[in-house]
């Protein structure tokens, strides 16, 4: 099983965002969805993670991931994962993820991506 399909993502998408005053600086969508690298483990899948270019490298991305992990933990999930584009893999690793499996072409975006997996403690 791979990433959540588009219909499932649209129906169950739970958006999260980070703000600075009235300005949204970072967004991500997430949904409960199994991780192929951790079969049978309750998991949360996230996608469309982005920080406004004017606000990058200030910790907003890390804080948003921490917030999603807290929501996942509260839902009893033990893993959080994503299909990460190559240019963002270092960010996820810096935030505590491990890289799993080989790179592949994402059929939605056409980008080369890799699984990044967080263990929620
Ligand atoms: C990738 C992205 C979400 C990072 O958000 P950010 O707010 O700039 O990241 P943070 O400031 O929270 O950085 C957290 C850590 O990751 C590191 N980091 C950030 N971007 C990185 C990158 N592209 N490669 C390697 N490390 C990176 C930071 O140095 C920091 O490490 P430190 O705490 O050890 O100093 C943001 O750059 C972005 O939106 N990029 C364009 C869209 C994108 O690629 N989204 C991901 C799709 S899979």
Determine and state the CATH class: Alpha Beta
Number of domains: 1
Biggest sheet architecture: 6 strands, mixed
Bound molecules: coenzyme A
What does the radius of gyration come to?
14 Å
Rounded mean pLDDT score: 92
The structure class reads: alpha+beta
Percentage of residues in strands: 35-45%
CATH architecture: 3-Layer(aba) Sandwich
Low-confidence regions: none
* DSSP strand tally: 6
CATH topology: Aminopeptidase
Net shape: globular
Q: What would you give as the CATH superfamily?
A: Gcn5-related N-acetyltransferase (GNAT)
Strand order, sheet with most strands: 1-2-3-4-6-5
Number of helices: 3
Output the helix-strand order: HEEEHEHEE
- Helix proportion range: 25-40%
InterPro entries: Acyl_CoA_acyltransferase, GNAT_dom
Domain N-acetyltransferase: 1-121
Organism: Catellatospora bangladeshensis
GO molecular function: acyltransferase activity, transferring groups other than amino-acyl groups
